[in-house]
Batch of 4 targets.
Target 1
Amino acid sequence: MSRTRQWVVPLVVFGALAFVPKLTVDIPYLFKSSLNTPGTLQLLALCLVFGGLALTYDLLFGFTGLLSFGHALYFALGVYIACIAVTKWHWDFVPALAFTALVGVLLPLALGAVSLRVGGIAFAMVTLAFAQAGSILVFKNPYKWTGGEEGLGTDYTKLPEAFVGIFNTKNLYWLALGYAAVVFVVVQWAVSSSPGHIWQAIRENELRVEVLGLRPYTYKLMSFVLASFLATAGGVVYLLLLGGATTDVTGANFTLTLLVMVVIGGTGHRWGALLGGILYTYADHRLSDASSSHAVSQLPSFLRTPLQQPLFVLGVLFILVVFFVPGGLARLGHVRRPRTLQRLQEAIQR
Amino acid sequence: MSTFILLTITGLGLGAMYFLVASGLSLIYGLMGILNFAHGAFITVGAYGMWFTEEHLSGIAVLPRFLLGALAGLVVGGVFATLVELVLIRPLYQRHIEQVLVTVGLALATVALVIAIWGNDARAVAAPAWLSETTTVAGAHIPNDRWIEILTAIVVLFALNAFLRRTRYGLIIRAGVENRAMVTALGIDVRRAFTLVFAIGGVAAALAGVLSNVYFGTVDPQRGTSLLIFAFIVVVIGGLGSLRGTAAAAVVVGLVQQYANYYASSGLGDLSVVLLLGVVLLVRPRGLSGSFA
């Protein structure tokens, strides 16, 4: 891909998406109401946030070959730290943001430094364990900060006015779009920079990188911190979007969903991961709507019951993708199993 | 002192369930290199198989009903695991990443399906009254089901050990864990051993599901997932592919969890287990047993 095209395509795509809140078009079946209504914009914004988040996970998994089961932790970090700082400590929004950013760099730096000392499956397990520790902390509700399993609402008065209220949903949409665009550009820039080439070399053959006199550990840590920081930023956007923190984002299941998004879209493929996140979130929400629709309620019960659970449909879809479209939707045209998966397998088994 | 004894026995009971789940995980990983996320689904299927059978046998006395339910749970779990291996895992032979991904998808889909059919709420499971009574040991009132859990795990440990050491298939499995390529090169169809290991793991996981029904008195859709996470930790602490290491780690994890939950504060037990994993991995990256075999 030529240099100019590499930057022009995202510019056109994200630029075009910015006009969505101005459109009054009604797309039947795909959306419940016309594009500029708050309900639809909210759904689209959610899709974009998860699209960006899936891309940050792909930076780790697809581009560096690090199979982490704890990426949800850093997203939850953004959601909860920002929410607690504003609501429980009564900070203003800007200091809260700065503090969240600080934690979003320091914590992945510390945890990454520890967990990257082991590789492959052991790394996956340590990250899973750290994420689980985070989840337990949230449920345990220390000092009544996290709100336990009930979650935590945000103190609206501290948030910037432009992002509060149904009337401002279009601003939230632009914020989410901005997040997805920034993540895309940063990931694109990062993987084509010289450390980025080393990340991909580590994915391909870590031993060879070491033989060349480079320290894979340092580069893996860079990738880990960058991906985690971007995920934390996504958490803050998510907080503004939903106006509160819920425990869903802390669990191990949430990281598994990220993995599902990336694989459905296409591993090690920028557009693929973004698309995977968007499609997954869209399907998750629309399937819940569809399950209560008239058409579904007329089906016999052995069909209707499973359809009521979006996760069942998505899980089955995921298995089908793994079997029949091994490269993900972004590589639909290619029949062969992409080399990336073979490399990843080797990287993880070392 | 009596509290300490109660905590110890309860911790061992918990460790027994972790061992039942982790032994299958460990064998599957050791032999096939698959981190089996669907193992939680095996637990859930076994647990619900038991509950479902009990519900449909409401006419008869509690003890035969309980035993039949438990048996049905084990059979369903074993059959489910075997089918998973034959239908989903085997076609992806040698593609480990895809195999892991398939088990992830299966884990998510199974839990969702169970929620769709029986709802998110916990359901009460009938068990003989004797199990919920207590026996007094050195002043501590121990619920009787703890003994059953510990005893079952010990029996399974010995049975698995005997199977692995004394039978031909056990030999193939041990050799496969050691060096799969060599076993294949000697003309042995190692894939049959794969199915067998999945079936054994499925039955053991279903057994853990059945016992967890007794331990908690209820069955709920998230049980499998929460047991699975600790079982993963047990497998990694014990060393992947090692049965004895797994047993030792299960005991340690169960005890640490119980003690910390009581003596420090509730919830801290789970955290200290995570901490333990971190420390073990940093000091001995290959787990307590120090080898993969």
Target 2
Amino acid sequence: MFLFFILPICAALLLRIRAFKRSEACRRALVLAVFILLSLQFLRFVAASHSLPYVIVAGFWPHYAGIVWMIDGISLVFCIAVLVVYLPVAWVFCEAKNPNHLMFLHFLLGFSFGALLSGDFFNLFVMSELFLIASFAVFFSAETLKSARLYFWIQILGSGVFLLAIAFLYKTHATLNFADFSIRFPSQSEHTRDVLGSLFLFVFLLKAGSFPLLAGIPSAYSSLPTPWFAFLAAISAKLGIYAALRFLILTNGEFVHAHPIIFFVLGFLTALLGWIGALGSLTLRKRFLYFAISHIGFFLICTEAVFLAAGHYALAAILYFLPFDCLIIAGLVLSESDQKESDAEEDMTPFQMRWPLALLLLAGSGLPPFAAFWSELAALKGSVTSKFFFASLLLYGVCNLYVSARIWLLLFWETRPRKVRVEAIFCALACLFAVWMGIAHFDWYEEIGRRTKEPLILIKRFHDSSRQIEKVREGGR
Amino acid sequence: MAESTLSNFWIVLGLGLMTSAGLRLVLEKPPLKRIFGLTVLSHAVNIFLLLAGISSTRELHPAVLSGIVPFEKLLDPLPQALILTSIVINFGLLAYLLIYFLTAERGGKT
């Protein structure tokens, strides 16, 4: 499991060597090697998903005193989501003359895996801060700096509040470990739980790009070079959703039960803002970004539904759609690059040029049998007993379909010829895989959702690992 | 015990002053003042972390340097480790912000 963090960092350092700096073929080989090695590791975990979660305690210390790494269904799916976006983006960066882009991408990959596999709040903080600082580095041009000013200040405010929340957590619970936090949380006073929940969820929703904390995101991301835009738009917000989901699962959705409307309202307002932005933006980049933001709204509504209505069905909906959503966003954004090359493609029919875009938009629209449909269906299936959630999810589905259709019409009938990159075609074809997963293997997601919604298994694994270490230590003495 | 409460009072007072000064500076318009305010705020949070480690008023010893001391009399080392890490991260962020500020001053020439 340690490999997930170490391998990308080693690859980033390798890129400082002259051969990798100069040769495009070497860079492509490195990217492929990293992708294949990580994919094989993930496939091993997918094959052994019935025995997840796994816990690894670094440095031979018990879980409460050392650094702990863990992988369960949620972190596995989120890691896969990061990996599937990594390949097309890294492939584009292999062409770039400056190898620093690829180096920073590997750093971001390592830090995002570090955040997703961390077993305590402080490592989660450290890894997300490192991810943030590495992502700030990609804004280093006069134009992007100017447009990202608000984004910087909001994110730095989030970092401060995150550290404050960790200090408050340690003061009240005397632990930062996920398992021990989950045990001690119910015995705290209502005010303590509320303050802790508010502080952590403020930070996680800020990172997820929820309404109204997404203020700086559209102008900041859309000013970036296309591959960076694709990677950050697809991945950055997902880390926030992961952290919020993890926090709520560890606390058995206590905050959502105490304040049942907050996530729903924020999710719906985020989706609404996303739809308005997608319909009203002047540039295609911003349209795609706002389309991605509207999906964040869906994830937030489902997060609330996990604890109030739909249970593991809503969790399965999130887990299933998340990697494909990352692919959809990355594919759409990558397809928007290289307009200069498009002059040579004038003899192509619109359909020849735009079928990957059509496929990506269909996957995100909620039409059967594409990716978003299975996700919305699972969420609806779980919330049949709650009219409120059922109606909201249905409304979400209809609006999402309408917005996708409008973007599709704009893309398909615009007069300007467009060449679609091979990386976007890869994303579109990968979205076809979602059809097969939705039809044949959706029960796998439901099983993962059922297992990971229950924090007791995770707690037991943490304590088992500590007991084993203590036994070995006693044997050594 | 009274002495310990008194020293805690000074720490809390310092924390309050640093937080208010940091917030005041963050709300200023010049970017350099904002950056300075963020630094002060981050140190205030570090002091809060330090306070989080003080769980009782008895005499406590540092975990590493005090020789053979019973476990229950050792100071909790975790907040200190957390503070060290957060100082390093804040330093990185501060360096980035200063370079950002200088770049903006020079009209975007990196």
Target 3
Amino acid sequence: MNVNFYVTCIADIVKSGVGKHSVLLLEKLGCNVVFLEKQGCCGQPAINSGYAKQAIPGMKNLVETFEVNDYPIVAPAGSCVYAVKNYPEYFERFGESDWAARAQKVADRFYDITDFIVNVLKVENVGATLTGKAVYHPSCSLTRKLGIVREPLTLLQNVKGLQLLPIHNQQTCCGFGGTFSVKMAEISGEMVTEKVMNISEAEPDYLVGADVSCLMNIAGRLSREGKKVKVMHIAEVLMQNEKGEN
Amino acid sequence: MSLKTSELPFKERVERQVHNEIMRRAVVKAQETIGANRQKMVDELGHWEEWREAAKQIRNHVLENLDAYLHQLSEKVSQNGGHVFFAETAEEATDYIRKIALEKNAKKIVKSKSMVTEEIGMNHVLEAEGIKVVETDLGEYLLQIADDKPSHIVVPAIHKDRHQIRKDLQEKLGYQGTETPEEMTAFIRKVIRRDFLEADIGISGCNFAVAETGSLCLVTNEGNLRLATTMPKTHIAVMGMERIAPTFKEVDVLITMLCRSAVGAKLTGYNTWLTGPRLEGETDGPEDFHLVIVDNGRSKILESEFKEVLRCIRCGACLNTCPAYRQIGGHGYGSIYPGPIGAVISPLLGGYQDFKELPYACSLCSGCNSVCPVKIPLAQLILRHRENIAQSGMTPLTERLSIKGFNFANAHPAIWDGSVKIGAKLAGRFIKNGKAPIRAGALAEWTKARDLPQPEGESFRSWFANREKN
């Protein structure tokens, strides 16, 4: 199956490993991965700060970029997928009905990687092995906004050797919130501190998530506290085998 | 403006609240307890999503026909022997209430808990006339004696602990007992019993007004409302103009949702239904009844993109689940309406000038959306505020410029491509052990509580392109 990969800006710039492992994982599962270089950011830094109107040209660029083919579009971040799913509403609101219709078609092809693997590729066990205890962080975007709850858990439960640990207030936001993390650094900082406290209580070896931005936030706090928890994106986990990295 | 609970700048408020250990512990405990109880009640009722949908439809129906229901309600209240006053502004409402208090030559007024009377700043207006106004809800009473402000719409004194409360009681009322809640409550009960007996007027809020019968439906847990609305000769009820249910049938659904969502209980201890003043031959109830229906900006909200927020039944479930409220408490917001609902309605009722920071005190996690019993898309409405604020130029210039730069690059693929590749390299070179050499702006803010990511030094797109070549 031909698949477009939507890397997201955070993965592209600072966490390319997440992008690489996502591509390798999709290829391992039989996909032919296409990367369209014209793709940019989903626009969340502007949209979530109230500049949706100014973000319209960027949205148009993203829609146009993915109109060159009709393959599904897979991303390693629920929040960016959710942002694109909202494009039609923004176009509609700013009087661009034609673009709303075009955006709808592209948005319908957008998938979070776990959703894509489980519901499109129909794979629940990718044959990965990772020994140790892990805490899974269900991101707000994936869980509450996109309703993808079961898929990442199913994939992780089928990783050989991996034990998933529950934590207190598991579904509570990690405090990232995009520009919230720097605009409201005090509140965001308290939130991530509490999240790390709850994670630490479970004494995991790994913290796993499917949203690259939340992971960057939680990892930043774990590092600040000197905690030895390894932070991994689910694509990285799913690419592990007995010998280590696949 | 009586919405405001503080004159301090937002950042300073937040700073103080974040370090207020007593508040932090109290709010965490309350969120955990109420949250767990709420979930139990949701599970026990079953079909929760259908209940939410039904409640939403009822509230939407009321809002769509608000003019007709307000007319019906006022007709019924008048037929029942009561008086109705429509107040367009907070001032009109307080003027009317003051006028009645002066006509009745009132010396003392007992109140049951009401957010709308806080909103219109009623107490100050009456107190300025030399009238003693006594809050009889336990939480509100504790705040009143300590000259403190509510920090939650249902549990107003949520930020205080028993040690503080005992201290206040000792200082203000000469209390000598222990700090057990029961003993302190019994003490206050005895003190305010006299106030109930002496009061000339009782003032209440209104959870729902039933248009069909002109009845008021009020839920409390302390029974103080019954005394406040039946002992004094005059009862004044104050309600936000949207708080209507067509008939008792709809109240059934709304009360079910309200009590379960607010305090995690099937019902509150007292459900009080009041239909007009005492009639001839009846043995109790007030001789005179006034219903003050407050607009105070609600008509404008009804016409705006924020219309859905008027479905709110003031249960506070959004506060009890909000991770930001958890860290800064109600006083961090500086409004009597804090938390997600406050971040939406405070700027609407009080203006952006005073409340423009509130919509940003939110990570858009949408936990509030999930628990709202009337399905208000709170996170989306919070974001709409940010749009209004940004589009009206109230945001800092540096923010506008950086967003402009970002949007420009993001709309030009060649520029974006180059920026990403260079950005990845620069990040790899300069970020070491979670620290960057520059500590200003966003970097400084980010690193207050956490380290920077360990970058890979190469962008994904460079890796992918090289891979294709090989």
Target 4
Amino acid sequence: MFSLDGYGPQIFAGAVTTVELSLLSLLGSFLLGLLGASAKLSKSRTLFGIATAYTTLIRAVPDLVLMLLIFYSLQIWLNDATDYFNLNDINLDPFTSGVITLGFIYGAYFTETFRGAFMAVPKGQMEAARSFGMKPLYAFRRILFPQMMRYALPGLANNWQVILKSTALVSLIGLTDVVKASQNAGEGTFRTFYFTSIAGLIYLFLSSVSKLVQVYLTRKFSVGVRQVVF
Amino acid sequence: MIYIIQTYGKAFLFSDGYNMTGLAMTLWLLVAACVIGFCLAVPLAILRNSKYFLLRAPVWLYCFLFTGTPLYVQLLVIYTGIYSLEFVHHVPSLNDFFRSGIDCTILAFGLNTGAYTTEIFAGAIRDTNFGEVDAARSLGYSTPKLYRRIILPSALRRALPVYSNEVILMLHSTTLAFTATVPDILKIANDAYSATYNPFAAFIVAAFLYACISFTLIFSFRKAEAHFLAFQKR
């Protein structure tokens, strides 16, 4: 009953793909979110307009629609671009497209998270750092960012859980992730229910581990913050 | 682009009187899922805060299972998974139910949004000011009356902003229905794409429709918040 019928390695490989995809998408959307939040808080009206359009539009459209839109169009645009510049064709595999699309979509959600967190850090902190003669980037890295992370963490953890779960969608654009691997196993053995449930259990495991990491990070970034203890 | 709108505009938006259109199907999925989710969530949220472990634990498990796994996996388990089990074929009612894509989709969506909504409502109930409960008790309210008159009205109001987020996310999740052969907006966009090989035009029309629904929902929830949360206004 509880055997994997030789599909164990495939499902494990799929699970690894899922984790890699989620982590790389997290990295992409994290950086895009920092950029977007800086643009939204900058004095330039053009940057503010672009960032606002980005977050509003992306968050209004379902991620699956965006994923299909970007995944199928990206290759066509890339081909047009390489033709135009007389370069060799660049072929995007589903994994790269998945990372780019997920990063682009969740960058909008991270932008909003970071914007709120940046605004929560008292203004005097940055002013004090600058008046000590710190360069803007150095002050950002040493003063603003660590304090901002504490406010951003609950939102970040939530976004991460959403990214992790939305990686299940990439099996629809042909990537062999844990869902696709379990579907293959289910079709091969006629035990779809059993194998799909295994995919579900793997996701449960991953999200539970993420919860533990979140607890650890919250403690790390809240160093020096007095909390009410009941 | 123009070609797609001319050819598929009808299937996206208007009905020919026999088939449901993509827009109608998406809205129907959204409403059905949210109604099921809401009806599940109110009693479960009360149980979630129960002082008895045996009432609390099953609800916790339900929320853990359905919020910890992707909706797509849940849909696959319910749509393709359950139907592959032998005993389902021998019970006519189950057989009919699980063979139909739309029944499975609505069941999966309802259970999924029910779990998230339970968490939202349970959090709001937990935040109820204890003074209100004390006051109601001292006036001799029975427990059902306490929930009906004091706890639920204020908790549901306070949950409204978070709940509106969940409804928007549910709208975004309805796009998964096309994997279970339900003809929603995305299914028609996908048909248009396979017929024309013009992905951008096909999916941008769908994206536009979804954005319109999202903005309408956001606008109506803002109106509802202004009405129900008027006491918070400064």
